[in-house]
Specification:
A: 157 residues, alpha+beta, OB fold (Dihydrolipoamide Acetyltransferase, E2P), 2 domains, 4-stranded antiparallel sheet, 2 helices, 11 strands, B: 445 residues, 5-stranded parallel sheet
Chain lengths: 157, 445, 445, 157
């Protein structure tokens, strides 16, 4: 708990530094510990914006936290989202040696398998269910995902 | 010792378990449906995971999603709370298969006690009185007459396939028995396509009295005395208390000893409630065992000073019960009122909505268990329990006075609640005198 | 038996008294200043009367207005709460003259104990140890040297007219004494125009330990054990507990017996607190008597199961104490944290404002005494106490765990509160070990 | 308590009747018990308007209750108020046999004594402290008044 609180404080401090200096990304790694932060760009033309996302090893990414999800759609509401229909572990490829199902820029349609979410040892192939071009991947390979968590952002046809 | 527990529930019981874990230094994972996304108690857990949409079949009752959430958050154990999956033996089995400790009884004990016929047999083996009756279908009138006279009138004829009062007849003498048998069989045949009936002693205006027990893996079992839950409306408990106001000391001991015998016979582990009917002569009859923690567990906590959720967690973590029965003392009187978001003036229909004004009672003798607060939105998806007020005082009269004061203080607007109904019951002469039974509420209000 | 009581106070203690009266069937009259016009606890009184503008000299401290309010509402008695007029002997005298029962001690006992010199004499008569010192002004160095050696170093020189640390010197040996006397006298002369000084033993890092007592008109007096209030900041108590974590059983008894002797010697009636300093060798020294109920009284209520306000009301109504000392048992450990609307990060300056989000802690072992709720506006007119959290558990370690959990749950926004300060203290190694004294907070934080 | 609750309920019922029937006044007397209610006129020209006032013997008039006082000034804000500066018992005349200090229509100036408020056996003469014409008396002779309670309404010069 104490360690986690320290992380939270650290992230708060980092966010402050980001805001003060107009940074959009900070990555820090010390051995196994990693903190990676991204901030939304100001709402003028630029790369796809994101809400603040903090991910720490062993910690659920707080993407599903009360404020994060609504914010995601608010930034660029012309994009569609592929969300996880189940709880489990996200894999971008059918096996560690394979290529990812989809990469940024790939075209998908309703039937395209975009990833696997493993739940109770079962590998569940997740289909896009929408058509368009993948413009963003929101979770890292091997990351835990909760129900409704956004996996990909898709620019519709 | 458990180090990380997932709570497969919501609302006040989820918060209750988070609190106990927090105080013991156990980390917690809360799961939630989209309807509970903004629940303020989620921030008190170390992690929280969205498991599905509001429909509980897709979330709080969805075993794969809950097990997945347990896997990705790397927990030791799952606390099921009450309701939802708490008495689902299949869920307990899957937890076990996945190497996750189910905080509750062993699967075998849960299955055994979940089967009414088996539970009744078990009670007989443990020399615990059950409601006298035919041990199966009654074939003919002659047998019925013999049995009715053996048991003693009044008796009740019930359809084996029955439910909702159909195929049921209360009989007071030999003359009525024949007609009642025939009409019950005919009604059951018409309603369920199956005319078999059985017979039980009819307990007139019984009280519902239950014993809280706790057993460990080493076969130790202790009780935390009884709760009287006779204040019910349509089998939903409204007010619970301990001690039962009509039991004499010797009866209380016999009741508790019976519960312990039964739980040991079942090789039970963790928390259970053994439910009895108490008739007007002071005889008690086993009904069933609830193989989980119950809504009304705080009543027993207040009179014994023991934290039952912490005992559940310790036992699930492999610790033995370090209390001897003589260490558990009953002190004073505790009452619990369940506050539901229901409209008593409109047949207790649910009253969802956002709480725009909320002032909870407080001060000496008051415990509040609630997950709600001003700004909370009560959704229509789940049960309507929004708060429990538990009062602990030296005497029953003081406990009633404190509870009345607490209910009068409690402001919850604009949703309708059962507060006025609880107040009406607490103000009733027969309640104050302790002269109630399970039919009291429906007969009186 | 009182039938109608006016409460000459506000905030949590006004609500506390209303609750006790309500449970006893005593009617209540609340008085309020214009600043408290919308206070939600007013609706819980049978009547409420506006007595003046926000300035407390024109309202809660205004004796004629309070007496008038008592007259027009036809009450038996006035409960003064704590602070405001609670220890004002003149007010008690006027109540008496007007035929209104003052719920507190007789005027004579209040006056006697309000005079520090008289109280000290009384303590000596009752064979209660006081801080050794000169029984008045020290005239010359020779007398000072003799006395200092008799008392034993360290000693403290204090100005008779003193206050705020001026004219005070701690002295550790004969050599320093002469210089200290001279400089203390000079400083006192400059500051107060009066250079007289006296001498007392300097108690190094003392604990503040106080005994709750209650006496009736028939001369019976009982105690409710002690409270340790060593956690103070600028003489303001922040956290109180019972029992005192360092007292051995024999010492506790001696302390309580001393308090009872003193209170009987004073022919005291109703609630009082006898305050002592406890030194590191376990010696205790009487300081003063608080002739009222105190903010921290719930601590003693939790460990004894007794309602002290109800005892105040019964005794004021002429009833004797029906408890024998042996009926009052100390059970478990209670802790109280005072939650003030103050900003610990800004030198504890008041933090008034409207509470826009409020979620109180709850569950097992928690008592909350508060008059605030979401939507309540904290005005800058009165003291900043907004809530008291009281925890009762079996052991001190469990009480600390529960209190930490409660403080972490407590949401009060946007006003700043002492919650983080309380959490910091509760997390400190020395507090957890019980190794604190009245200087702990200022030395440590 | 029960009796008082019954009174409150009764008053609520009466107010309902008044509203439904556009009544501005109801007076009921049963022996020593008296209930007197007045309602504000609709805001068109007419007699002086008042908020709802309920007075029951032995009960503080709830004029000082949270909502009443602000409402009083809202109805006709061109009127001034003479408020009680103390808590006590209101007397309209220096002795039971005397005439009232002031009647409706009387002219008062700052120094005019308008009533007595008795507090702790002391008869305190209350001065108008404003100039104008008394248009309304808000409390009955012998009634208890709290601090700040409106005693008279005055039409300024």
């Amino acid at each position: 708990m104490a360690e986690k609180d320290a992380d939270v404080q650290k992230i708060r401090d980092l966010i402050k530094i980001m805001k003060e200096n107009d940074l959009v990304k900070i990555d820090i790694q010390h051995g196994d510990d990693r903190i990676s932060l991204r901030r939304a760009e100001p709402p003028h033309p630029g790369p796809v914006g994101n809400p603040i996302i903090a991910s720490l090893p062993g910690l659920m990414a707080p993407v599903g936290a009360p404020d994060a999800a609504p914010a995601a759609t608010a930034v660029r509401d012309d994009l569609l989202e592929i969300k996880s229909p189940i709880v489990g572990t996200f894999y971008e490829a059918p096996s560690p040696d394979s290529d990812p199902y989809v990469e940024i820029g790939a075209h998908v349609d309703a039937q395209t398998v975009v990833c696997i979410v493993e739940a109770m040892k079962v590998m569940n192939e997740i289909k896009a269910e929408i058509s368009g071009t993948i413009v963003e991947k929101r979770v890292a390979n091997g990351q835990a995902v909760e129900y409704g968590q956004v996996l990909f952002k898709v620019k519709p046809e | 010792m458990l180090s990380r527990v997932l709570i497969a529930n919501r609302g006040e019981i989820a918060l209750r378990v988070i609190r106990a874990c927090h105080e013991m230094g156990i980390e917690t994972v809360a799961v939630y449906s989209e309807a509970d996304r903004n629940a303020s108690y989620l921030r008190l857990a170390n992690e929280s995971v969205c498991i599905g949409p509001p429909d509980c079949n897709q979330s709080y009752l969805n075993i794969p999603r809950i097990i997945s959430a347990a896997e990705i958050t790397n927990v030791d154990a799952i606390h099921p709370g009450y309701g939802f999956l708490a008495e689902n033996a299949n869920f307990a089995q899957i937890c076990s298969d996945c190497g996750i400790t189910f905080i509750g009884p062993p699967v075998e004990a849960m299955r055994l006690l979940g089967d009414k016929v088996e539970a009744r047999k078990l009670a007989r083996r443990a020399k615990v009185p059950v409601v006298p009756g035919s041990e199966g279908v009654i074939e003919d009138e002659k047998e019925a007459l013999r049995l009715a006279n053996e048991i003693g009138y009044p008796i009740i004829i019930k359809a084996v396939a029955g439910g909702g009062g159909r195929g049921m007849r209360v009989v007071h003498n030999d003359i009525s028995l024949r007609a009642a048998m025939a009409s019950a069989k005919a009604e059951a045949e018409a309603a369920f396509g199956e005319g078999s009936v059985y017979m039980e002693k009819f307990i007139v205006e019984p009280r519902h009295v239950e014993v809280q027990v706790m057993a460990d893996r080493e076969g130790n079992a202790v009780h935390f005395f009884e709760r009287d839950c006779s204040i019910q409306r349509r089998h939903q408990k409204m007010i619970e208390e301990s001690p039962c106001p009509v039991l004499e000391e010797r009866q209380r001991e016999r009741l508790a000893e019976a519960a312990i015998r039964l739980i040991k016979e079942a090789r039970y582990v963790n928390a259970a409630t053994v439910e009895f009917l108490l008739d007007k002569e002071g005889n008690f009859y086993f009904i069933e065992v609830n193989t989980r923690i119950q809504v009304e567990h705080p009543v027993s906590e207040m009179v014994t000073g023991q934290d039952l959720i912490k005992w559940q967690l310790r036992i699930a973590g492999g610790e033995p019960i370090t209390l001897r029965q003589t260490d558990i003392k009953h002190h004073g009187v505790a009452l619990e009122c369940r506050i539901n978001a229901e409209d008593p003036s409109n047949n207790f229909s649910p009253s969802p909505g956002t709480i725009s004004r909320y002032i909870a009672p407080g001060g000496l003798g008051i415990r509040i268990d609630t997950h709600v607060h001003q700004g909370w939105t009560i959704t229509p998806n789940y049960d309507s329990l929004i708060a429990k007020i538990i009062v602990h005082q030296e005497t029953r009269a003081e406990a009633i006075a404190t509870m009345r004061r607490a209910l009068q203080e409690f402001v919850i607007e604009p949703v309708k609640t059962t507060i006025p109904a609880c107040l009406a019951i607490l103000s009733h002469n027969l309640f104050v005198k302790g002269k109630t039974d399970t039919g009291f509420v429906e007969r009186t209000f």
